[in-house]
Amino acid sequence: MSAQSDQVEAVLRRLGAAGTVRTFDQEVPTAAAAAERLGCDVGAIANSLVFVAGDEPLLVLTSGAHRVDTGHLARLLGVAKIRRASPERVLEATGQQVGGVAPVGHPAPLRTVVDVWLEKYDVVWAGAGDHLSMFPTSFAELVRLTGGQPAHVSP
User: For the whole model, what pTM was predicted?
Assistant: First the structure.
């Protein structure tokens, strides 16, 4: 495990998460790669995507089967515009590289939205801070762990 996934594992334990971090021997930097490796539906992969809403980072945990509609999400959150964060801004906000961002373990709390589509799955897999690690969770647990706002991320 990496320093990032060790940190995520520690946060998960402190928050009473049910699942444990699983480390793979090959990178799983995309939802499709992760789903193939885990033998699950791509929709059960919780992508951790970082956007910028105004000047603040926004973490969106979305089903691997969805694309985030930033216009819809901006209206829902009452902000003028939401744009994708640069890889540098993602690292600054999360301490983790694009493709391995976890829902927890960031330097400071992030405003978070959790895609309600994830509620369809009993087990949801989320990144654990690097390209080699993920952990099993549920929609309800993701909301609890992150303090996230459940929402439709696309109309």
Answer: 0.95
